[in-house]
From TrEMBL:
Keywords assigned by UniProt, alphabetized: Hydrolase, Metal-binding, Zinc
Domain of life: Bacteria
Keyword Zinc appears in the UniProt entry: yes
Organism: Aquaticitalea lipolytica
Protein name: Succinylglutamate desuccinylase
Cofactor(s) in the UniProt record: Zn(2+)
Domain Succinylglutamate desuccinylase/Aspartoacylase catalytic: 49-228
InterPro entries tied to this protein: AstE_AspA_cat, N-alpha-Ac-DABA-like, N-alpha-Ac-DABA_deacetylase
Molecular functions per Gene Ontology: hydrolase activity, acting on carbon-nitrogen (but not peptide) bonds, in linear amides; hydrolase activity, acting on ester bonds; metal ion binding
One Pfam short name: AstE_AspA_cat
Length: 324
């Protein structure tokens, strides 16, 4: 990873020299009452030059687990680098966070409007300023997400395939799984990649929920990445990776064949085979008892924790093509 080293960096109109701690308010809009809505950007620069790493969360406002990970980076002072610069944006979609919603007030998914427009919708304007005034300063982005709604994701890093640098960084992070997935048009990940900025997308847990294990996996991964670049402060130690990441080349969803009350009988990360019993779907009257069985070999990387499901709902995400 090349180092975008500068004695002074300019973010959102603020000049920030080496050895500076600064919190900038990213003013994105006003409420109908003319009250300003600000997104805090926390910047820590060592006196020693080095890489600049950006940690982001809350692009989807209801994905609280990622917010918790970046919050802990700040509260524990892990974000104070031995060298280089660490930028933290714990909540990008502050509107969604306040309203426990995935989207912006204009109904748009912020993660589908990048690189944005200076004169576009509210979400598009936020994306534009992020891409134009923050991203050019960084060397690496780590973006934290969770599963949507009731779908609980195993801790995983998502990267595009055939990028050796990303493979190496994913291995350094050390999440249980690394999922190769194509870039989605107009996503934040795609916009960073188009600008030549390496990005690791972390997925773990589910929306509107904080799982301490997922937070711990994220924090330990961050410490390993910082240690890799000699940025981790001497007060912290990166834990060794107990089990190397499992790389996933392809996956498939197992969907409900019936509507009813759903109970999973397998835990996340479980290795399964064709015919493995994964759960049951029943009805309130005791007439239906449908056993959900696996139709593939692989690992469970997502479980739908909804109590009620409809026919066709995604129940399990199965990693089917695994690269050791």
């Amino acid at each position: 990873m090349s180092e975008n080293y500068k004695d002074i960096i300019t973010i959102l109109g603020h000049e920030i020299p080496l050895g500076t701690s600064k919190e900038i308010n990213f003013n994105i809009a006003k409420l109908h009452t003319s009250t300003k809505i600000d997104v805090p950007v926390i910047i820590e620069r060592s006196k020693k030059p080095g890489p600049t790493i950006l940690f982001t969360a809350g692009i989807h406002g209801d994905e609280i687990n990622g917010v918790d990970i970046v919050r802990q980076l700040i509260s524990r002072k892990i974000n104070k680098p031995k060298r280089g610069t660490i930028i933290c944006m714990p909540i990008i979609n502050i509107f969604g966070f306040l309203n426990a919603s995935r989207d912006f007030p204009d109904g748009r998914d912020l993660n589908r409007v990048f690189p944005g427009s200076a004169n576009g919708s509210l979400a598009s304007r936020v994306a534009y300023r992020l891409v134009k005034e923050v991203i050019p300063n960084v060397d690496l982005v780590v973006d934290f997400h969770t599963g949507g709604a009731s779908r609980y994701n195993a801790a995983q890093i998502r990267i595009v395939k055939n990028q050796p640098k990303l493979d190496k960084l994913a291995a350094v992070f050390g999440a249980p799984f690394v999922l190769y997935s194509n870039h989605i048009s107009k996503s934040f990940r795609n916009a960073c990649f188009q600008l030549g900025k390496p990005i690791l997308l972390f997925e773990g847990g589910k929306s509107s929920f904080i799982d301490n294990h997922i937070s711990d996996v994220g924090l330990e991964g961050v410490k390993r990445v910082l240690a890799h670049f000699q940025m981790l402060d001497k007060n912290f130690e990166a834990s060794p990776i107990e089990t190397p990441s499992i790389y996933i080349d392809s996956s498939k969803w197992l969907r409900a064949k019936r509507s009813g009350m759903f109970k999973s009988s397998v835990e996340i990360n479980t290795k399964i085979k064709v015919g493995s019993i994964l759960g049951q779907i029943t009805d309130p009257y005791g007439k239906i008892h449908h056993t959900v069985k696996s139709n593939a070999n692989g690992y469970i990387i997502n479980v739908n924790e909804a109590v009620l499901v409809y026919q066709g709902d995604a129940l399990f995400h199965i990693a089917t093509d695994v690269i050791k």
